[in-house]
């Protein structure tokens, strides 16, 4: 679905190669400033690489009209600003333009536990509650494509501000969407959750591609030390990786 060939941005990314296929669930990992947000913006068609190419279904993503992209590509950024105290339900509905009077689907409302939030002003919600509303907004925008199994979901730190229960619920929901044929690319800072839920991962460090591929290929002690500059203990518990930084950390 997406192919990156030697994608580079001066001071941010250097010769990134990546292939994201339909129905895959990718997690982009790395320290703060590793280049994750820049990479996601390029894959969402919101920024252009200075070097290399980003292809979407074989076509340069820059050839797509943004209005056309918005029909099947959802993007969730790290920073969201709410200037008006409108009810959360109205805020979400605005991004569902063209859906008329269709209500939010129950599966989306339940996955993000939106029901108690919809009548409340977005400016009166907690940070985690606002995050759930913003994620709903991003998905609702492309819900027709999601139902058809043709959506591309690009989400920058979607778990930021969510408590552990909502993180698990949302990641399970994303897995289900991928099983229906949709493709998901998110950035993440929780290595154990990424190892549990992602089908594939890419690890960046200083704009350099440390490793990419399946979870078993990426989540090795050597790769993680190269990506984060500290050592990790990796154990397998009932076919689920548990990843813990060694304490006290020994900086490389």
From TrEMBL:
It comes from the Bacteria. Pfam families: ABC_tran (PF00005). InterPro entries: AAA+_ATPase, ABC_transporter-like_ATP-bd, ABC_transporter-like_CS, P-loop_NTPase. The keyword rRNA-binding does not apply. PROSITE patterns: ABC_TRANSPORTER_1, ABC_TRANSPORTER_2. Residues 2-231 form the ABC transporter domain. One of its GO terms (molecular function) is ATP binding. Part of the ABC transporter complex HmuTUV involved in hemin import. Responsible for energy coupling to the transport system. This is ATP-binding cassette domain-containing protein.
């Amino acid at each position: 679905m997406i192919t990156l060939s030697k994608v580079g941005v001066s001071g941010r990314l250097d010769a990134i190669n990546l292939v994201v296929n339909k129905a895959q669930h990718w997690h982009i990992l790395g320290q703060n400033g590793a280049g994750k947000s820049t990479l996601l913006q390029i894959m969402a068609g919101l920024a252009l690489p200075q070097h290399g190419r980003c292809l979407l279904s074989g076509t340069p993503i820059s050839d797509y009209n943004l209005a056309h992209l918005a029909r099947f590509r959802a993007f969730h950024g790290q920073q969201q600003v709410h200037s008006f105290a409108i009810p959360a339900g109205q805020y979400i509905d605005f991004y569902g333009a063209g859906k008329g009077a269709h209500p939010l689907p129950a599966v989306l409302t339940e996955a993000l536990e939106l029901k108690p939030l919809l009548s409340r002003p977005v400016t009166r919600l907690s940070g985690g509650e606002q995050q759930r509303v913003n994620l709903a907004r991003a998905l609702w925008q492309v819900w027709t494509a999601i139902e058809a199994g043709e959506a591309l979901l690009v989400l920058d730190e979607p778990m930021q501000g969510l408590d552990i229960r909502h993180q698990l619920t949302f990641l399970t929901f994303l897995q289900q969407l991928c099983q229906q044929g949709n493709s998901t690319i998110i950035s993440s800072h929780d290595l154990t959750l990424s190892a549990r839920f992602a089908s594939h991962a890419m690890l960046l460090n200083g704009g350099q591609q440390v490793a990419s591929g399946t979870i078993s290929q990426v989540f090795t002690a050597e790769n993680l030390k190269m990506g984060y500059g500290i050592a990790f203990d990796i154990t397998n518990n009932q076919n689920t990786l548990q990843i813990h930084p060694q304490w006290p950390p020994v900086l490389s």
